Queue: 3 jobs
Job 1
Amino acid sequence: MQIPNSSNRSADALGFRDAYRANGYFFPLRAVSEHEAAAYRGKLEEHEAATGGPLRREFRQKSHLLFTWLSELTRKPAILDAVEQLLGPDLLVWQTAFFIKEAHDPGMVTWHQDSTYWGLSEPEVVTAWVALSPSTSESGCVRVIPGTHRSDQVSHVESANPNNLLTRGQEIAVDVDESHAVSMLLRPGEMSLHHIRTFHNSEPNRSNDRRIGFAIRYIPTRIRQTSFDADTATLVRGTDRFGHFELEPAPRNDLAPDAVRYHTDVTSRRSRMYGRTSPAADERGGT
Ligand SMILES: O=C(O)CCC(=O)C(=O)O
């Protein structure tokens, strides 16, 4: 399968690639307009209003397999153009995850490296974290420690904090010098990019609004899953010459029955990799 590369190279002008390589993150970049971000938020909240509560935990992972508008968001040229400059022209979406903190939600994320449990053969994963609401210090934006992507995998402990949104409550076991933390402040429709090894965390939402982030994990087609068989990913740009992942179909309609069945199958394969979940991740999602 081949998906044409876009000729839109707007991210070039921002000269962000060197900064990303030096620091392990970059922000802000415009992913979609503020108006489109509001429309995406509206679709999420329409679904929540129809189902009578916040998005179900199991729908917060790999959500691009369930909702056409999220499948569309993962393919936005402005996002792919930026990611292509970091990972090359052949791109898969390996994971998507909603990180939603309700107004005054105590949910938080401990300092961690994404690479800890993902089982991928190389640390070549870029997360595009797209803000669908203001992501500020008050609402608990993502914070990063510059340069930490150059460290190897560091050890993590699994903590029992019931407010931790991470799947296993994992936390970096070495000292993190928070005096160097950078808050990745984003307006709706903007995104940050971070490297799989970058130390990052986030604090509770002390604002009166929800903090809604949609994290899209991009990988180049050349890397593979080493922890379990039959991992899946969506080809969003270029060609897959390797076949390391089962290629996922896009949903034809929101929550189409075949899409929901496929999503259930794929996420249960994934749960073998992640093992147990923390109480907060059980309730609210997380990764
Ligand atoms: O959204 C957050 O607060 C944390 C996000 C995160 O840990 C991630 O995207 O890897």
Job 2
Amino acid sequence: MSNGSGLRALPKVELHRHLDGSVRVQTIWEIAAETGIDLGVRSLEELRETAVIREPVTSLSQALARFETQKKVLCSFHAISRVTRENIEDAVNDGVKLLELRFAPAFIAEGTALSNDEIIAGVLDGLSQGMARHPIEVGLIGILPRGFPASANERALEDLLRWKRGNAAGADRICGLDLAAVEAGIDPLPLVPLVDKAREAGLGITIHSGEDTDAAHIARTLQLFRPDRIGHGIRAWGSTAVMNRLIAEDVLLEVCPTSNWLTGSVPSLDRHPLPHLYRAGVPVSINSDDPNLMGIDLVHEYEVCARHYGFSREDFLSLNEAALRHSFLPRETLDRVKIR
Ligand SMILES: [Zn+2]
């Protein structure tokens, strides 16, 4: 797009990016070669074909297989540190001035010998390196994957809170808790005490909800978890009651257009509800979700919004101001972020 470079330079706030869903293909290739991991491909080009989602997936297993390729290389403190640092570099390259990066210790640890402590230490190491090298403020959100054993999620939350209370470099950047993975058919009630505990410990709350599920799921999420923000939440469009509640309670939707198209949550980018939600006054923000997995960057999402939804620079400014206002980082940190 002709104004692509202008959009790259635009100062941005990004609240929804998964570090364990966005490993560069080159990095997957290099870590696999260093550690002897079999990726089942013979060349970097072949890896590019199999590790990146470019067309809407036809089944969940197709998407999960690609997540598995990324997850395979998150196999050590050093690999996790590198991937965290590279996520920060990618965001800097997108013009991001404030980034909230999220990760699921229990997901990364699953099937490996890694402890939550090694994973969190790796993320904090990469965060410290990234912030030392670049002019960016970074916050961390811990994810509890719905559907994981209760014991694994309880332990992950306890470990995250213990690190947050400690004095390791970067530990003060742990600022939020998220629930992610499949929402339909999962009983949310057992997760309520964990979210309450996180809120009491000072974490901001964001919940993946209403991505491919209906507005009733968002209403239930608002009722049970009282979140500050919602991951996706795009199915609020069409429910006046839910949209009014989001507006009245100032709950921001973290919207990720291309991700929603690739996972089949919307039929096309043109038919994404983002512009309608925005123009109806629902607090929204623009995010990349899993950019390396989806072969995009955040600038691409701004180009989509300009081209498909007619968003202007003033719109982008107002969206970034809303995102900044809803960041979980402390006020004194937010005051240092200049987006105008
Ligand atoms: Zn997400």
Job 3
Amino acid sequence: MIKYKLICKKCDISFDSWFASSKEYEKLKKKSLLNCHGCGSKKIEKTLMAPKLISGINRIPKSQNLKLRSIDKKIKEYQKFIKKNFEYVGKNFTYEARSIHYNNKKKNKGIFGTASIEQIKELREEGIETELIPWVEDKNN
Ligand SMILES: [Zn+2]
């Protein structure tokens, strides 16, 4: 497994992604199977920093390494919590968030889903509280 830091050329966010190998990354990229976690754009590039970052991980002190792992674990725990307590609305997130806000639509659960940085900014300007959370794709579910 290899971890690349990918960056979206459209909305400028970067995120980490795991690949079986660098060849797999190239293959997925060629087939346009990579897209941005934020806006769904296919204009994804590997950041230049990535290879250094990967080879650097084994060389950083063990305590740091543990820290990284525990952050990863925390994110996963957080995701578990969100999945359990919030309703997944996927790309309808902004629509659902607005309908809750403006129509007083009652929901038993909060919602989570995907939105672009721009959409989040708009929601915030409209006074709709939205949190950005780090998300690690889990292939097991
Ligand atoms: Zn994007």
